[in-house]
């Protein structure tokens, strides 16, 4: 998948900001209408983001299928997060509701094969809430850095 | 469905007419679960409720799917990160539409083949009736070729 392909870039970025955690990668699928705009505003305000996170622009979180999330994990990410619009404010009416259920489904699948379900999470925010985006990314970063690196075969 | 007497009369009057669905009901329905994408078309088409969309999903279906299919790609990704074999069934949230196991109840099945015609990935096959009861239903109709 192209989304997972874009994620492939190795984690060469300096990891000094993340304490002792080694190299972790989090893929953040961001909705163009809200989360990506919030990320943009946060970047313009020069808010430091954890170096683990890689942003992937999607038109709507409803576009992200279980395959995107699982391939991101399988191709090198330690966690995947979806950042979409507030509930009921999706620009495509119910894309984020679909995404919420898909994330739940992927979490259950991960659980059934013995992978921590916290590795995939969904956050919601509006375009005018850069602090909320930054808080979500930091929370995800803390969660993932607390977990051991994802083992792959 | 079998022809009625009236239907048979009409068929005999028409030159060059054939009754295409001669086997009617009583076909042996064979499901190929590894090809199934879980869309539920068969459940929508089923007149007797023998096929139903389940509320759970068996993760093993992903692992068993052919590698070039969408489910197979998902299974391949899952296999790379899996710690152990899938443990049991996964409950599917309401808005996840395709990753569902179709429940098929052979007892309720009429063998009409509506699911076969609806299936987008040809995961269901209708075979000529095998059992005696089904065969007698099929044989009761004349194989009309006017």
Explain how this protein is built.
- The complex is a heterodimer of chains A (about 150) and B (about 150).
- With about 150 residues, chain A is α/β, with parallel strands linked by helices.
- Chain A has helices spanning about 1-5, 35-45, 65-75, 95-110, 130-145; strands spanning about 25-30, 55-60, 80-85, 120-125.
- Chain A has a four-stranded parallel beta sheet with strand order 2-1-3-4, with helices on both faces.
- Chain A starts with a helix and ends in a 7-residue tail after the last helix.
- Chain B is α+β, with helices and mostly antiparallel strands and about 150 residues long.
- Helix content of chain B is about 30%, strand content about 15%.
- Chain B has a two-stranded antiparallel ribbon with strand order 1-6. Chain B has a two-stranded antiparallel sheet with strand order 2-5. Chain B has a two-stranded antiparallel ribbon with strand order 3-4.
- The radius of gyration of chain B is 20 Å and the shape is elongated.
- The chains are: A alpha/beta (about 150), B alpha+beta (about 150).
- Chains A and B meet through helix 3 and helix 4 of A and helix 4 of B.
Do you know the CATH architecture of chain B? 2-Layer Sandwich
Question: What is the structural class of chain A?
Answer: alpha/beta
Task: Please give the number of β-strands of chain A.
Answer: 4
- The arrangement of helices and strands of chain B along the chain is HEHEEHHEEHEH
CATH class of chain B: Alpha Beta
């Amino acid at each position: 998948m192209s989304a997972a392909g874009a994620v492939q870039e190795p984690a060469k970025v300096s990891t000094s900001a993340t304490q002792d955690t080694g190299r972790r990668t989090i893929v953040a699928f961001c909705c163009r209408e809200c989360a990506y705009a919030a990320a943009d505003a946060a970047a313009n305000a020069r808010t430091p983001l954890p170096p683990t996170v890689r942003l992937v622009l999607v038109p709507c979180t409803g576009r992200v299928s279980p395959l995107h999330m699982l391939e991101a994990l399988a191709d090198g990410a330690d966690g995947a997060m979806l950042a979409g619009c507030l509930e009921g404010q999706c620009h495509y009416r119910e894309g984020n509701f679909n995404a919420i259920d898909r994330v739940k489904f992927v979490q259950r699948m991960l659980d059934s094969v013995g992978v921590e379900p916290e590795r995939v999470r969904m956050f919601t925010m509006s375009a005018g809430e850069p602090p909320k985006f930054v808080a979500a990314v930091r929370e995800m970063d803390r969660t993932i850095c607390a977990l051991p690196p994802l083992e792959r075969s | 469905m079998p022809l009625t007497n009236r239907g048979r009369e009409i068929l005999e009057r028409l030159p060059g007419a054939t009754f295409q669905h001669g086997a009617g009901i009583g076909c042996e329905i064979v499901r190929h679960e590894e090809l199934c994408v879980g869309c539920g078309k068969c459940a929508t088409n089923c007149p007797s409720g023998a096929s139903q969309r389940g509320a759970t999903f068996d993760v093993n279906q992903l692992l068993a799917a052919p590698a070039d299919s969408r489910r197979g790609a998902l299974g391949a990704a899952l296999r790379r990160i899996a710690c152990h074999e899938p443990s049991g069934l996964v409950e599917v949230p309401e808005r996840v539409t395709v990753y569902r196991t179709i429940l098929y109840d052979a007892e309720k099945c009429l063998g009409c083949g509506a699911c076969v015609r609806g299936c987008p990935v040809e995961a269901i096959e209708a075979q000529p009736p095998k059992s005696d009861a089904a065969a007698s239903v099929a044989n009761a109709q004349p194989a009309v070729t006017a």
